[in-house]
Structure formats: C-alpha cells, structure tokens
Amino acid sequence: MAIVEKYFSGNKINYKRMKINHKFSAFIFFILMALVSSCQYDTLVKPVIPPPNPADTISFAKTIEPIFNDNSNCTVCHNTGGQVPDLTTGYAYNSITSMGLINISDPVSSKIYWIPNPVNSSGHTWKKYTDVQAQFVLQWIKQGALDN
Ligand code: HEC
User: Fold this and answer.
1) Where are the alpha helices (DSSP H) in the chain?
2) pTM value?
3) Which of 7, 35, 87, 101 has fewest C-beta within 10 Å?
4) 35-56 confidence digits (pLDDT tens)
C-alpha cells in the first residue's frame, strides 16, 4: 500500500518511478527464472550410472571407495575414530577385511554388501546403497574382494 501511495502522491502519477520499478521487477523475474532453471539443470544432468558390465574388473580404489566417500555417503558416520567400519579412503580396505565383513565363499552374505543393501529391509537403517552401487560391491566381492 505504501508504494502505491507513493506513486499517486498528490494525485500526480509518478511515471518515472513506475518505469524504474518495472525494470526492477523484470530483473527480479529474470533472477528467479535463472534460479529455477539452475535447479532443473542440476537434476537433469545428474548422471545415470549404468550397472557394472560382468566382464569388467571392479577396482576397489577407483569404484568402491568412491561409493563410500561420494558426498560423504557413508563416511559421514564411518570415519576414522567414528563408527566402525572406517570407510574413508586408504583405511576402508583394512577395516572391512579385519572386521570380517566379506565372505568370499558366499559373496551375497558379505556384510559390506548385504547390511546397507536397498532390498534388505532388516538391514542398516542409516543409509543404503543405490541398486547399482550394491551391484558394483557384489561384483567386486565375487572377483575376490581385491585391494586393487
Ligand atoms: C548416519 C550414520 C551412518 C551412515 C551414513 C552409514 N552408516 Fe553404516 N552404520 C551406522 C551405525 C550406527 C552402525 C552400527 C549399528 C547398526 O548396524 O545399525 C552401522 C553399521 C554398518 C555396518 C555393519 C558393521 C558390522 O559390524 O556388522 C556396515 C557394513 C555399514 N554400516 C556400512 C555402511 C555403508 C556401506 C554406508 C554407506 C552406504 C553406511 N554404512 C552409512 C551408521 C551409519
């Protein structure tokens, strides 16, 4: 109301003020659109990660550790001095193997695969792998759970 009163003050319409104001609202509109579209951009370019090719050798350092670390996925809790296993880069392999979280003879029962598995309703409620991440972890275990 106060703004409207200003435009019409003394029964004289302040056209100059209104013009500036139009430019200003166009500017605000532009900023809002930029914000909205930048959000959409963010979701649109999110890479869709295909499941592992069974013929590929999965590298612990290149593929598995980044699953634990990506956006602090697991390492926000599982870090050095925090919740065991320590899943931070450089410590994860030792921690997983020394805690016996891998079962080479029955890979699907490996705790590091099964506890945070999205289809395990009685598992880890904190955070789960995505379906594709779980497939990578399983393939890595099936290939001998190497420190590669
Ligand atoms: C918000 C904190 C939090 C996050 C994030 C988290 N965890 Fe956990 N995790 C825990 C806690 C607390 C426990 C122990 C209690 C339990 O099992 O619920 C645990 C237990 C585990 C265990 C079982 C260890 C054992 O001794 O049997 C595994 C394996 C595990 N987490 C893996 C993961 C993986 C992989 C991720 C990432 C996908 C992850 N966690 C993310 C808190 C977390």
Assistant:
1) 2-7, 15-44, 65-69, 92-98, 111-114, 131-142
2) 0.76
3) 35
4) 666 655 555 666 788 999 999 9
